[in-house]
Write a structure and sequence with these properties.
- The protein has 166 residues and is an alpha+beta fold.
- The protein has two domains: 62 residues, no CATH class; 57 residues, no CATH class.
- Helices cover 37% and strands 16% of the residues.
- The chain has four helices and five strands; from the N terminus they run ααβββββαα.
- A three-stranded antiparallel sheet has the order 1-2-5. The protein has a two-stranded antiparallel ribbon with strand order 3-4.
- A hairpin with a 6-residue loop joins β3 and β4.
- α2 crosses α4 and α3 packs across α4.
- The longest helix has 29 residues.
- About 7% of the residues have low confidence.
Length: 166
């Protein structure tokens, strides 16, 4: 299969059509992502489990919703950890949370901002509402093997550009 020969034989109109087709695929994916952000209220509506969480093995895709806010230090952390306890705050009636990863021996206080012992509602990024088992393994493989990622992207790009409508 001679990819460059196929490109040379394509007339300009066909080439423009294929490039436009590729751009539409990319823009559609971005619109779907932004739509999910609006619908779920989460800055990251879909996350891949990279290190097993106990309840969710590696490669599961989690669907998140209801963004409560950023972490206290202003950065977003996308770890999915369970609330292990909560208590009502005496100061303003808000509930405070303590989290712990399923596979961790201790709670997450070491990950909190210095001097912070509890999380509040504003610290929670989202809540897992559903999952797709092992669909995220492709992401893990592409992160572990960058050459595979670039080869896959090149093949997909070439396919979209060279595919001819019947």
């Amino acid at each position: 299969m001679d990819l460059f020969g196929d490109l040379r034989r394509m007339n300009k109109r066909q080439l423009y059509y294929q490039v436009l087709n590729f751009a539409m695929i990319v823009s559609s994916a971005l619109m779907i992502w932004k739509g999910l952000i609006v619908i779920t209220g989460s800055e990251s509506p879909i996350v891949v489990v990279l290190r097993g969480l106990g309840s969710f093995p590696d490669g599961h895709i989690l669907l998140l919703s209801r963004k409560f806010g950023a972490c206290s230090d202003g950065r977003y952390r996308f770890g999915v950890h369970c609330f292990i306890t909560s208590l009502p705050s005496r100061e303003n009636g808000n509930i405070k949370f303590l989290t712990k990863g399923d596979n961790n021996e201790v709670d997450d206080r070491g990950l909190y901002k210095e001097g912070q012992n509890w999380l509040e509602k504003k610290d929670v990024v989202g809540r897992a509402r559903g999952f797709l088992p092992y669909v995220g393994m492709v992401t893990i493989i592409m992160n572990d093997y960058p050459k595979f990622k670039y080869a896959l992207l090149a093949v997909m790009g070439a396919y979209v550009l060279l595919k001819r409508e019947s």
